[in-house]
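User: what does the whole thing look like in 3D?
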Amino acid sequence: DTLAAAMPSNENKAAEHGRDNAVSPPQGTAVDSPDDLVSASTVAEDFASDKVGDGMPELGYNPTNESLDRVRVDSNGQALTTNQGVRVADNQNSLKAGLRGPTLMEDFILREKITHFDHERIPERVVHARGSAAHGYFEAYEALDDLTVAAPFAAPGKRTPVFVRFSTVAGERGSTDTARDVRGFAVKFYTDEGNWDLVGNNIPVFFIQDAMKFPDLIHAVKPEPHHGMPQAASAHDTFWDFVSLMPESAHMLMWAMSDRAIPRSYRMMQGFGVHTFRLINARGEAHFVKFHWTPKAGTHSLVWDEAVKISGADSDFHRRDLWEAIEAGNYPEWELSLQVFTEEQAEQWSFDILDATKLVPEELVPLRPVGRMVLTRNPDNFFAETEQVAFCTAHIIPGIDFTNDPLLAGRIHSYVDTQITRLGGPNFHEIPINAPVTQIHNNQRDGLHRQAIPRGRVSYEPNSLGGGCPFQAGASGFVSYPKAIQGEALRGKPERFAEHYNQARLFWNSQSEAEQNHIVGAYRFELTRVQTPAVRQRVLALLARVDATLAQRVADGLGMDVPAPLPDFAPGSHIGAGVQGSVQPPEVTQSPALSLMARPGDGALNGRRVALLVHQGVDGAAVRAVHTAVLQAGGVPRLIGHRLGDVQPASGDPMQVEVTLETAPGALWDAVVLPDESADRPNLSISGQAVSFVQDLYRHCKPILVLGHSSALLAATGAPGSAEEGGGDPGLFFMDAGGKGSVDADVMSTFITAVGQHRPFERETDPPLV
Ligand code: HDD
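Assistant: Here's the predicted 3D structure for the full assembly of 770 residues, as structure tokens:
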């Protein structure tokens, strides 16, 4: 089918997409030689950075693949073997004493197979169990000599391979992708100075200030221990009980109840290193730094009703979206920016930069773009790569160092520790996906699953028998920043950690109207699920301290009165006044950068899914024209009908329905194109399935293009504006195509622009009209 053949595909994997230019791997060997696989010229043109010109390694090719090639297995044309390499004659029947007799203990083939199967599972991650990952590279725009000696920033255009895993936090390994949750954004840089893991989230702050509280937080949000419910959800009593007793979570809760917690795609969310880190230059000078990843496709989210429906229709929604974008050669991209500041600056601020519940407003320190990251290759094997990858905040390289953030301190311990259980021993760094591209040399020895075979008799240092090797690298190795330390050992918090509400209020004040409405809706939803009235009451008291209107609106939704605000223990507040110093007023009270709307992205369709509804007698020429236009704009057009197979348009060749209304309901699409259908010749408009399909797109504020002046189908949804020319709804488009085969280029391009801009929220009401 010509429409299907027009769909884009990943140049690196042509064979898997049945393309003519496919290079099939030689049978029974690893896939190697990137030069053969990549048609470098096309990829190079598309992906060469406009800022740096030609990059270093072959474009579109990930150098880590080289180190992984030694373990890639391709069984094409090969006979089945046991784990000892013995060819297996019969894989159907166990060895028996007579056909109806007992199975023999001697059947080593059966026993090996069953034993291995019995041990296939490993423990899932204690948090962030559900995730999806991809390979790619980071490319520096410029050398950052003034700031750091860190290898990825050594030269303009330098490329460092990366493996990136996105995740939800609370759900189990098989839980739904579109749960309301923080998203993990973990990047492993395979640098030529060893591995650097930047283990961040899509939200720049955290719930708690001290790692001491992390197990409590996670116990509160995970399914309740007596009955194991709910899965992948914070909308239950124990979570809200805990956070309402921990006012330091006020700021993060605002983010978690915002649309940030239901991203449209992993490709459309920001990433943050969260903590303040240090950059160290060749002179040993340190600067404070916060890391920001900004998606080229912009920051875009789902709406809650949609997220819930997607959960049912496709619980792999984000995993599939990432996979399909990369398979289609539509490589996701982020820009890395730094917020760099000095200790002297930080001393002046009203908040403490060691407090992970606070961000540094961009008004105080603007973002400095330093490079870009592109994801170009899906893993070959989910378990070997995505499941076994081990990110550790302790993995840093020369040029980067920690600060005394007490949350970070706990993390530096936790990640290595947890891998030892999860991956079964201290040698998880040898699992191919975790191995650095630099050779490891040290005297650590043995342990479960050891791969390396160290030569010689020396496994200690100093030694003379091994010529003193491996030797200490001195100044060319990792040198910890000599930060000054003073004071007594004590348990407590610094003064500025006591202020919890200024940035929660800053976030609220910086949201667009639609985002504020969604925040109110999220609190209402979550607290309605909470069964204990006193917990609801305490959350309202917390919100009352953040913003009176917010608290009132949430209280209205719960049928409650707003209680007195929670006491504020910050020094200088009404209770703490005169007790111990005082807290300064916030420097910034509104920060437009905190709204999702601040980063609309490049406006391209970026793999957004556009449904073209078709039926017998549809205007084929118009459908084909829209299909082409969507494809050219980088979207994914699909023909949808009641049943798979051919439909005969009014004129021209038959068209193939690729997806059905039943298997891919409305919530899964970013926009819809409705066929011209008059009331006197009804077709889809008399199908409840088609009507609710379109109703969902309408309710979720997605662009709708009507082929013709009006549509019986749209009218059947009861949508306001369904009459001719839309009645001013900015997301409704009517295109006169009426069988003439020509399409209105202006309407087409306004529709495409609207899809790229994501959602016209003007249509939204609470409760929804449709
Ligand atoms: Fe964590 C996993 C991010 C606080 C302990 N965390 C994990 C992952 C991400 C984060 C993205 C998944 C990595 C992957 O894809 O494999 N965590 C964060 C961020 C935090 C944070 C941004 C706050 C700023 N985490 C945090 C604390 C602790 C942990 C305070 C413990 C003291 N996190 C873990 C862990 C996990 C983990 C238990 C579970 C699985 C793993 O490490 O590999 O060690």
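In plain terms: The chain has 21 helices and 18 strands. The longest strand covers residues 131-140.
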